[in-house]
Automatic annotation (TrEMBL):
GO molecular function, one term: oxidoreductase activity
Cofactor needs: FAD
InterPro entries (UniProt xref): FAD-dep_OxRdtase, FAD/NAD-bd_sf
Protein known as: Oxidoreductase
């Protein structure tokens, strides 16, 4: 009889785990059910930048995970036949106003490329060359271009992965579920038996594991972004993503759509209401680079909740003392980059068994659980 697997959470981690459980060799021996409450999902609200290589973060495990995550996405795009509306390797441009900062960044890029060939080519661009590649800009700055960088549409990606998995061995159920104090899954109609459960519930992880007497060091953070209607440059739909100094990025999605984001609001926690102040702040950031943008160009605002650990690094693996439970969380601001790899590793553990050593990617799970 096929083993029954449950996944709680249909964001990038849950959807990737479901996809790999349906497509890795041996996955067809499982019946998989994914439960998703939907609201607040960070994956649907995300900006979609995949470009971890020039991060200044010192956490080597995070860097390995993000670097290999970017590579996993490249392979996933081919394997799942993703359209360029969902995943597009447009390249990224990181700009700096200070000449020395730009020089240092270029040196760092060349160093990092030594063991990250998927970064592709690295070029120094003048402000005029940046403008040539992103004609939307009125005030371009000089920058570093990395051809391996990409943008993804998180919502469309999870929809596609779940659609493909549903054609094999996945059932998707909308709605909130919980766990009892033995780790059994409880739905609106009562307890359901599963052989293994992946908990990929983003910042809601604490709520789920509370009945087990477990506390996880994960906190919520509100993130907001804006979508704007911009001139449609027809033949230039492949504009690179722009990452200027600071936290606001500029993601041209082609077909006259631009995303600018995102905010990082630690005080607002799980609040999902877009605020006019955050919208104005994002618009002001956008206007620094494209001065013609007005409030009237805003077509949509999106809000999601990120999950952060104290060291800003994700964790994932089998929960100690609860052999049928696997968890993933704390993906923070780079979860679209790391999520597919985490989903693949969790799916692989279920299919092939064993206790893999992931110490090159994460600290021990006990660092985050008490
Ligand atoms: C504004 C914003 C911009 C971002 N930009 C980027 C970016 O450019 N690049 C990048 O790499 N990352 C980015 N991120 C981060 C990235 O989106 C997240 O780290 C990632 O999506 C987290 O994925 P997840 O699967 O862990 O959680 P989520 O996507 O939050 O999914 C968790 C799911 O679990 C469900 N759930 C929770 N509890 C239950 C329950 N009891 N029962 C059923 N379902 C439940 C929720 O409803 C939700 O759908 C951004 C995030 C935000 C908010």
């Amino acid at each position: 009889m096929n083993k029954k697997i449950a996944i709680i959470g249909g964001g990038i981690v849950g959807a990737s785990a479901a996809y790999y459980l349906s497509s890795l060799p041996g996955g067809d021996q499982f019946n998989v059910t994914l439960f998703d409450a939907g609201a607040g999902q960070a994956t649907k609200a995300a900006a979609g930048i995949i470009s971890p290589w020039l991060s200044k973060r010192r956490n080597q495990q995070w860097y390995q995970l993000a670097k290999d995550g970017a590579t996993t996405l490249m392979t996933l795009a081919r394997r799942a036949n993703l359209s360029t509306d969902i995943y597009h390797q447009t390249g990224t441009i990181i700009t700096r106003t200070n000449e020395k900062d730009l020089h240092d960044l270029f040196i760092l890029a060349q160093e990092r490329r030594q063991d990250a060939p998927d970064m592709g080519t690295v070029e120094r661009l003048t402000a005029a060359e940046v403008k040539e590649r992103i004609p939307l800009l009125t005030n371009p700055q000089p920058g570093i271009y990395i051809s391996g960088g990409a943008r993804i549409d998180g919502e469309a990606l999870v929809t596609t992965l779940l659609d493909q998995a549903q054609q094999v061995n996945l059932t998707v159920k909308r709605g909130k579920v919980s766990l009892d104090n033995q780790g059994n899954l409880i739905t609106a109609t009562g307890q359901q038996r599963f052989d293994e459960i992946i908990i990929a519930a983003g910042p809601w992880l604490n709520e789920l594991v509370e009945p087990l007497g477990i506390k996880v060091a994960v906190r919520p953070q509100k993130g907001q972004l804006i979508e704007l209607a911009v001139p449609d440059y027809g033949s230039q739909e492949n504009m690179p993503v722009l990452m200027p100094e600071g936290e606001r990025d500029f993601i041209p999605f082609g077909h006259g759509k631009l995303i600018v984001g995102a905010t990082h609001d630690d005080e607002a926690g799980f609040n999902l209401t877009a605020t006019p102040a955050a919208t104005q702040d994002l618009l002001n950031s956008a206007r620094q680079f494209a001065d013609y943008l007005t409030e009237g160009d805003i077509t949509r605002t999106k809000v999601g909740t990120r999950a952060y650990t104290p060291d800003f690094a994700p964790f994932f693996g089998r929960l100690k003392g609860h052999p049928k439970l696997l968890v993933a969380g704390g993906l923070g601001a780079s979860g679209l980059t790391t999520g597919p790899l985490i989903g693949r590793l969790l799916a692989g553990t279920i299919i092939y068994g064993g206790t893999p050593d992931w110490s090159n990617y994460e600290k021990p799970l006990t660092n985050y659980f008490s």
